Fold each of these.
Amino acid sequence: MSIIPGTEYEGLPLIRQGKVRDIFDTGDALLMVTTDRLSAFDVVLPDAIPDKGKVLNQISVFWFKQMESIVKNHIISTDVNDYPVAFHKYKDKLEGRSMLVKKAEPMAVECIVRGYISGSGWKSYQSEGHVCNIKLPQGLKESDRLETPLFTPSTKAEIGDHDINIGFDQAANILGKETAEKLRDLSLEIYNRGAALALEKGIIIADTKFEFGLLDGEIILIDEILTPDSSRFWPLDDYTPGRGQKSFDKQTVRDWLTNSGWGKTPPGPKLPQEIIDNTSKTYKEIFTRLTGKTI
């Protein structure tokens, strides 16, 4: 993936640029910067969403702290003053949207948990009666809450490709049975705690994905956690099973793109200012609901 103009920190060692995050090598650690870039249908759009990166970064920090009693995470510091000196001149740009993290070896699968039946899971259930080879009861409606959340891992795709859902047995073949079981148990425990807390704040976390890494032989939580980019967030006060739900994330953008006639191939179209403003407002509202703070 080529460097996206306007996102470089001149002179700093950028080693990877994802759809949303820029990662720099600081020697003993990594600096992860969450930008305001927005991707939809696996295409990075030309317009940024103001403060989106700060929202995603700070929601992750909030959840990492909530889950410390379950599993350790990769955060070293979110204080720019603790970063290597070369980054200090960019303090204003990095504040609130970055974290210094440990170098862990990422696990080879993404850990998806589904608490409600929606998206690709709903499509699979409609056509085959199961989700990732997990048989489900007959008669479920779209967006129904599942009696027990499902662990449905996927392979990690390269940028621009789609992840591929796999069964637990395939994950065990990749990771080893003991490790796969550990990731499954951790994922379900984290999801259950996060979903319960979010529900108290009027947010349903329908599904989500986690990434884990290995550090000195220990499994830790890495990347992001329970953000509106890695999860399907629904407002509780609008929830009605039997239909698709209003999404608390970039659904406004997806809907506009779908109706625009764009062919979902690069380059993405420019967004109307109203769509940009509404999306930024939605991300900030999620953050405030969850944390009680404002950005």
Note: Confidence is low (pLDDT under 50) at residues 1-6.
Amino acid sequence: MSTTIPGIGSLIPQPAISSLEILAEPVAAAVSTLVASRPEFGDQILAVSIDPQVADTEAMTEAFGMDLALSSNCILVSGKRQGVERVAACVVRATTRADVNHVIKKRLEVRKASFWPTERAVEASGMEYGGITPIGIPSNWRLFIDSRCTRGWSCIGSGLRGSKLFVTGEVLSALPGAEIVDGLAQ
């Protein structure tokens, strides 16, 4: 692999399209679809197996000597309007915090927005806690991506705790329904 990812530490990812077995099922299906429609993404969606014990951002950063600024987290947030739940997957750099009470609430057009409980997030996404990713989310969810994640590479979940994806900002921007939001995180 000739791709250089600044701040990756000791990890050596390979093209995800040739490692689909280490991804959660909805993620593998979405990666296949993305690469089929945009072949150039084959070199911009990379995967690597990791020990599930170090899947959390801080632990992974320490274990592999990775730059924390390379990681991006996907959080699930919801709110109700007129009795209808509105759900958003929100992607923010690990060095920031999603602005749930202002920006996300306003974009969802709800009075109150909250993080989803772990059990609900896992069940609805088909992904493991600690591995939830914007790639392969249900099509009826909104997808908000902080504009800082559209530049350079991001280390994101793979749907499983035992692997991670490395994707370019171009890939994140091209995800179905992606809404790029300035100031999504503080």
Note: The chain has one domain: 14-177.
Amino acid sequence: MSSIGAGANDHVVRPQLVASLDDQSRDWELVLRESHHRMKNTLTLLGASVRRDFTRASRRDVSLAVDRLERRIVAFGRLYQLLSDNDDPSAIAVEPFFEKLCGALSEAVLEPAGIRCEAAIESGRLPAAQCHRLALMLTELVTNAAKHAFPNRSDALIRIELANRDGAWLCTVADNGIGATGPLQGTGSRILEGLARSIHARLHGEAGQGGTRVTIVMPTVA
């Protein structure tokens, strides 16, 4: 009798199982694409920084340039550790996690490019999966702004805000740069949209002469 019952439910159980496995596979592919994309952008930024430092450096300044490069590589290591250490099944405290992330982004990406970073982060807790995917999205937006928003500006600023409002977390990345036509282009845009869908988040972007502002709206429970 039990085998007959199991056979009768196969048409229900198997599609659900296949759908679940498909979702997991798509999620993994999405994160993997983001990792490759992030590494490519990281190496681009690092290469530009090295070229700038060593082109300007005199012989006596070479050691200082090497020290700056070493500190930046260490900061990139901290950044990737935060983005990849997602095995914790428990909830993550939002404020210390994103303060560390903003510090690593500032030291690794923004400060070498002469960009100031301001951060205002509220306290709270998020499931690890949501927290890390939101961190990937924030990193993508900050890195994109650093690459494209400030071709010739001495007072460059990126401000990061994270707040819990009316049952949703609002994560905003705003710059005072030239004003983009959209949050991201190409591969970065597709990855960002895919990450947003994976945590049921929405993206809102606005750009003008005062710069670009992108807000991620993520429900507290996705």
Note: The longest strand covers residues 157-165.
